[in-house]
Amino acid sequence: MFILLATLAIIQPAIPKDPGAWIGPDDYPKSSMRKNEFGVVGFAILVRPDGNPEKCEVIVPTRFEDLNQYSCRLLMRRARFKPAVGPDGKPAYGIYRSATSWFMADDLVRVKELIKRYPYPSAIDLTLLTKGTKTPAPIELVVSIDTTGAVTQCGTPEATVSGNIVEVACKGVKAAWTPFLGSTKAGQAVMTVQSVKVGFEAEAAAPLNR
User: Which residues, if any, are the signal sequence (predicted)?
Assistant: First the structure.
């Protein structure tokens, strides 16, 4: 079941195929090893309707530009996807966001220390304040974004989430989340389907008057 708001078609994000095989330890560039370059590279890939990457953009860079651009070059060669599905039910452009890490160490303890110091980007894209004693669990939304950046469709594949929570989350996304605008390498603006992770926090209680 797919919970949607005021729509008939079921939109779906681009789904990665075997992402664990895209970048591995053997890909660490020797030049970066010599210069002790490391860190976490957050990236966004514009996925074409045929499932191939159109372009890759670094959205959370390391301090080392060569390592940032090398990550995207590898992803452009290796990343493949099941295409997104647009509001018309046909394959569409999608935006896939994730991160990859580059760390060198002689032992696992040191690697864990580096990962803790240079963490992956947060999986939560937007945090909404809620009232009440029970805070909803984070949910993943799937949205369609037109060429102006407006959310035209919003829903969730999580069948156990109540419609009220989905409605609140979608309203919050439309009001406060900044989507990635899709444009091809040639500069043509395109409609995209994207995933958005929404978290919730309890609103602080008002101080008591004395």
Answer: none
